[in-house]
């Protein structure tokens, strides 16, 4: 490293807040992308970037796999950082972070420091009231729980990560490296991004347009537009979207979407949507004590008569008959 490089001030400074039982992979992939982008030849030099693990104490914090990490800094002025990244993990009954951490995050927000939630770090930010009026990206695995805990929040689980003004969110796992690479490219340039990805053996960083790895309905399809629409259908069973709305969500007309579904999976969007609603209804009928009107409303019907007709047309039995004899 040259003398000029050594005297450069880091252009990207990140503070990490780790929750109890945080996800080690999300933290490691994000911080290593920053580390490798900061210097050449994998020397771990903090030339272009700097980072700290900050906390209310210096006590070890256990990850969900049992590996422990010690904070390297107490809470300092949040404005020292370009981003504060909250790394979540297991969702449990005990608070993921203490009150001092929540106060620090609120102070960072007041100072307009961008906040990022990795994995379930978005739950921590939302619990603190810091995700209101911001779109949140979560893993499909945690989508329903996020909706249940934070009604009224704008949440999606079709994309890998999302940046909405001074909020970032990420599904976790390998998408943490994609989000970190995006930030590196914005702050440090393409060369720094390429250096990090090459050492990590990542051929190409995915973007915020890429779809989470998943096969809705176990349907094999390699078209990201079809996958995105299927996920959106699953997320919109109660408030049914029109086929036109589904088409617009992926930049297509209704006719184009119908043609795409016919080409890729040989079934219409409307039939798939009905199948999803009926599968959800069957689960509620056989595994819960919910009333038929409640079930009908949960899968997008306004009355039980219409719901019962569609259910019987799908399964050959009414919801009442299936509930009385589920194995018949």
Automatic annotation (TrEMBL):
It comes from the Bacteria. One of its GO terms (molecular function) is DNA-binding transcription factor activity. It holds the Pfam family HTH_18. Residues 227-325 form the HTH araC/xylS-type domain. The keyword DNA-binding applies. Keywords: DNA-binding, Transcription, Transcription regulation. This is Transcriptional regulator GlxA family with amidase domain.
